[in-house]
Design the sequence.
C-alpha cells in the first residue's frame, strides 16, 4: 500500500519553462469563457516567440497577438461576447502583424482536434464546402467518398488534424495527479485539446483530494483523466477576466476596461499593460482588486 | 439612458414588432427542430413563434441549456429540458434538425454572407468576428439572416469574404454541399427577402407597412429580383402584440435595434 500516482503539481513559471519558441499551443475554453488566463499572462511575461496558437479565441488571442508572440493563428472567431469584436485581435489583423492566419469554421476546429485526438491525418466534413475558408486556406483539400449512398461519391472537406505540442486548459477542480472536473454548464472542448496534444498543462481554481472531486459533484463532471495531464497548477481566479462558472462569472467591468485600453491609443494600452501585466500573477490579482475598489 | 415609451396595445404596430412577427413566420413551419437565433430581434421572433405558430420549437438560453418554457428576453431562470453544450451544437448542425438565424455584415446578390472581415482577407480594412459557424451552418441546416439596417453597405454585389454559402456556390461545390443547403429568409428592417430570384438570387418577398418597393430597391446595392406584385408584410396580431409588449420584451429592448420614429417626424 501507499503507492500513489505521480504528484504533478507545478508553479505557473514551471509550466512556462516547459514551453519553447515555435511550439503549437492549443488554448482551451471558448471565446471569453474559462480561458487559462493566468497561463496566458505568464506567456506574456516570458521571452517565448513564434508560437502557433490554436484557439476558439477570446482575450487570450488578443493579448498574445498584441504582445507579438504569435507567428501563426488558427481560429474560427475571436470575440469577447458582450463586446463582439476583440480590439487587440482586430488591430493586429488590420495592421497585418500576425504573419500567418488560418480561419476555419468553428465546427471544423472540433473535427481537426478530433482527428489529432484519434491520430488520424484528417476527418471528412461538410463544413467549409463552398465557403472562402477553402479559398483562404489553399492547403485544405477535399476527399471523395468511396461509397455512393445514392447521392454520388460525395466530395467532402478533409479537415486536417490539428496536432498540438501543448494544450493549456483551466478547470474548476483537480487532484494533484491531474484528474479534473468542470463545475459549470459546459465542458467546452478541454478534453479534446488534451487528447490532441503531446502534453497538457492544467490550471485549476482549487486542488483537492481525489475523493473531494466527487463529494459534491456528479462523476460525469470529471472531464480529464490524469493519463492525459502532465502538470497541475493551482491558480485561484486563474481564468479572470473570463467566466469560470460557478466559481465566478465574467468580470464585465474589467473586460470593458481592457477593451477600452486595447481599442484606444498606444498610451492607453501602455498604461493598462503597466498597471496589470507588468508584474507576476499575484501582482495582477492585486491590481484587479485595487481596480474594483476604485470603481465601487 | 431613457427608455422609449412602449406603445400600448391599441396603437398600431411599430416596425420592430412587424420585424419580430416576420422572423416568427420564418420559423412557423419548422416543426420540432432547434431554433438558433443570433441576437436580439431573432431571439424575440423565435420566442414569439414558439408561443404562437410553432410550440414544438426547441429553444436554448443561448449558452448550454434547452429551455422548457419561453422566457422574456434576458430572463435568467426557466425550466430546463435539455443540455446543449457547444460540442452538442456541432452534432445538431451536422445532423440537421436546426434553423439558425445569423446576422450579416454583408450579403450579396447570390446570397453569400460575410461576418469575417471587410476588405482583403490578408489585411482587412476591418476585422470582424471571423467566419464562426457560418460555413458549416449553411451547408448543413436551414439558415436565415437578420439585417437590422437594410442598406447598400450590407447588400453588396460581392461580399468580401464568403462565410455563409449561397445557393450557386453550394451547387458548384457539389452534392455534399448542396444536399442540405437551405437559405430560407432574409428579414430586414424594411422587407422580407429570400433566394427565390433567377438562379437562386435575392428576391423581394414583401415590404413592411409604410415601406415602398422603391425604398428597398434603393437600399439594396445590387439588382434585386422584384416580382410584379409585392405584398405588404403582415402586421402582428393583437395577441402577438401583447406577447411582444407585455411578455417577451416589456422593457422595449427591440427599439434599440429597430428604433421608433422620432416624435418630431412622427406623422400621427
Sequence:
Amino acid at each position: 500500500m501507499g503507492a500513489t500516482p505521480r504528484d504533478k503539481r507545478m508553479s505557473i513559471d514551471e509550466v512556462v519553462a516547459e514551453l519553447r519558441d515555435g511550439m503549437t499551443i492549443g488554448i482551451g475554453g471558448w471565446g471569453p469563457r474559462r480561458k487559462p488566463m493566468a497561463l496566458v499572462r505568464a506567456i506574456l511575461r516570458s521571452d517565448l516567440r513564434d508560437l502557433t496558437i490554436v484557439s476558439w479565441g477570446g482575450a487570450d488571442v488578443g493579448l498574445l497577438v498584441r504582445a507579438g508572440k504569435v507567428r501563426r493563428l488558427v481560429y474560427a472567431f475571436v470575440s469577447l461576447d458582450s463586446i463582439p469584436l476583440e480590439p487587440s485581435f482586430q488591430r493586429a489583423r488590420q495592421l497585418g502583424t500576425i504573419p500567418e492566419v488560418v480561419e476555419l469554421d468553428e465546427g471544423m476546429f472540433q473535427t481537426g482536434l478530433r482527428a489529432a485526438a484519434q491520430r488520424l491525418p484528417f476527418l471528412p466534413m461538410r463544413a467549409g464546402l463552398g465557403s472562402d475558408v477553402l479559398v483562404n486556406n489553399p492547403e485544405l483539400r477535399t476527399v471523395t467518398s468511396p461509397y455512393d449512398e445514392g447521392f454520388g461519391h460525395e466530395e467532402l472537406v478533409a479537415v486536417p488534424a490539428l496536432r498540438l505540442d501543448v494544450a493549456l486548459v483551466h478547470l474548476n477542480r483537480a487532484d494533484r495527479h491531474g484528474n479534473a472536473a468542470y463545475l459549470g454548464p459546459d465542458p467546452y472542448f478541454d478534453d479534446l485539446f488534451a487528447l490532441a496534444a503531446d502534453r497538457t498543462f492544467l490550471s485549476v481554481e482549487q486542488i483537492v483530494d481525489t475523493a473531494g472531486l466527487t463529494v459534491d459533484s456528479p462523476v460525469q463532471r470529471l472531464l480529464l483523466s490524469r493519463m492525459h495531464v502532465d502538470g497541475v497548477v493551482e491558480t485561484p481566479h486563474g481564468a479572470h477576466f473570463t467566466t469560470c462558472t460557478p466559481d465566478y462569472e465574467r468580470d464585465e467591468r474589467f473586460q470593458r476596461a481592457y477593451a477600452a485600453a486595447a481599442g484606444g491609443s498606444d498610451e492607453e494600452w501602455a498604461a493598462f499593460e503597466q498597471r496589470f501585466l507588468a508584474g507576476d500573477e499575484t501582482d495582477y490579482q492585486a491590481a484587479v482588486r485595487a481596480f474594483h475598489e476604485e470603481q465601487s | 439612458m431613457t427608455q422609449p415609451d412602449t406603445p400600448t396595445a391599441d396603437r398600431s404596430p411599430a416596425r420592430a414588432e412587424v420585424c419580430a412577427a416576420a422572423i416568427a413566420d420564418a420559423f412557423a413551419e419548422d416543426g420540432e427542430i432547434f431554433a438558433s437565433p443570433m441576437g436580439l430581434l431573432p431571439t424575440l421572433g423565435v420566442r414569439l413563434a414558439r408561443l404562437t405558430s410553432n410550440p414544438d420549437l426547441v429553444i436554448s438560453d443561448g449558452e448550454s441549456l434547452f429551455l422548457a418554457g419561453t422566457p422574456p428576453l434576458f430572463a435568467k431562470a426557466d425550466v430546463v429540458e435539455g443540455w446543449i453544450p457547444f460540442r452538442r451544437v456541432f452534432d445538431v448542425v451536422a445532423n440537421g434538425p436546426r434553423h439558425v438565424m445569423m446576422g450579416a455584415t454583408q450579403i450579396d446578390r447570390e446570397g453569400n454572407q460575410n461576418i469575417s472581415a471587410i476588405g482583403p482577407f490578408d489585411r482587412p480594412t476591418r476585422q470582424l468576428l471571423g467566419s464562426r459557424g457560418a460555413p458549416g451552418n449553411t451547408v448543413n441546416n436551414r439558415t436565415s439572416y437578420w439585417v437590422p439596417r437594410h442598406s447598400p453597405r450590407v447588400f453588396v454585389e460581392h461580399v468580401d469574404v464568403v462565410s455563409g454559402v449561397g445557393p450557386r456556390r453550394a451547387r458548384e461545390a457539389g452534392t455534399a454541399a448542396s444536399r442540405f443547403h437551405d437559405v430560407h429568409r432574409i428579414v430586414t428592417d424594411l422587407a422580407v427577402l429570400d433566394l427565390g430570384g433567377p438562379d437562386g438570387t435575392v428576391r423581394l418577398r414583401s415590404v413592411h407597412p409604410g415601406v415602398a418597393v422603391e425604398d428597398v430597391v434603393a437600399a439594396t446595392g445590387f439588382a434585386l429580383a422584384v416580382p410584379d406584385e409585392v405584398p405588404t408584410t403582415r402586421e402582428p396580431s393583437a395577441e402577438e402584440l401583447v406577447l411582444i409588449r407585455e411578455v417577451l420584451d416589456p422593457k422595449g429592448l427591440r427599439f434599440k435595434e429597430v428604433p421608433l420614429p422620432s416624435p418630431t417626424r412622427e406623422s400621427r
